[in-house]
From TrEMBL:
Keyword terms: Electron transport, Membrane, Mitochondrion, Mitochondrion inner membrane, Respiratory chain, Transport
Protein family: Belongs to the complex I NDUFA12 subunit family.
Keyword Lipid biosynthesis: no
Pfam families: NDUFA12
Gene Ontology, cellular component aspect: mitochondrial inner membrane; respiratory chain complex I
Subcellular location as annotated: Mitochondrion inner membrane
Lineage, highest ranks first: Eukaryota, Fungi, Dikarya, Basidiomycota, Ustilaginomycotina
Keyword presence, Transport: yes
Name by which UniProt lists this protein: NADH dehydrogenase [ubiquinone] 1 alpha subcomplex subunit
Signal peptide: none
């Protein structure tokens, strides 16, 4: 939805291109007060229509990876993506890259843990590559190789909410005593 407001009266326009915005600005006189606001959804990336799960993309993926991996990826990450395997971290996570995907969504991780996984299972060195902080993966980046020291401990995953998570110890006497029922034999 694009709003073109002139003299305080908004007018709805269904779709407008950047070229139309410039033409509209050029046609209007500078004496006329104009507020031209364009919603970001009015513009779209040229690859956006092709990057969604189209029939051709689905068929190509099934041919390349197989129906089993297609079904797993569809249920696992919500999209069937295929790409170049860039590397594997010390936890067994696999990192992929495909420049034909959406911008900033062309890198992804396939976690080693199938059922319960979280973002803290990604190695911090790979995190910087995954989130475009570094352009090269850790095994190719000389800067990362220099800052990795032998005395550094491997990172641990976040265990909050699991049996190993921290539980506070209460040293104060409870104000209310818990009721424990007594079972009497019937007879």
């Amino acid at each position: 939805m694009v709003r073109l407001a002139s003299h305080g009266r908004p007018t709805d326009v269904t779709r407008i291109t950047p070229l139309q915005v410039e033409r509209t600005r050029a046609k209007l006189s500078y004496a006329e007060p104009l507020a031209l606001t364009v919603h970001p959804s009015a513009f779209h990336h040229p690859r956006a229509t092709y990057a969604a799960m189209s029939l051709a993309r689905t068929i190509n993926y099934i041919r390349k990876e197989g129906i089993k991996k297609f079904w797993r990826d569809l249920n696992y990450i919500g999209d069937a993506k295929s790409g170049r395997l860039v590397g594997i971290d010390r936890n067994g996570n696999k990192f992929y890259e495909n420049h034909d995907e959406f911008p900033l969504r062309h890198r992804w991780v396939d976690y080693a843990a199938d059922n319960e996984f979280n973002a803290s299972q990604v190695d911090p060195l790979w995190h910087s590559w995954l989130h475009h902080i570094r352009q090269k993966p850790p095994h190719e980046d000389a800067g990362i190789q220099k800052m990795t020291q032998s005395w550094m401990t491997p990172p641990r995953e976040n265990i909050t909410g699991t049996r190993g998570g921290f539980k506070t110890y209460n040293t104060t006497k409870p104000k209310i005593s818990a009721w424990e029922p007594k079972v009497a034999e019937r007879g």
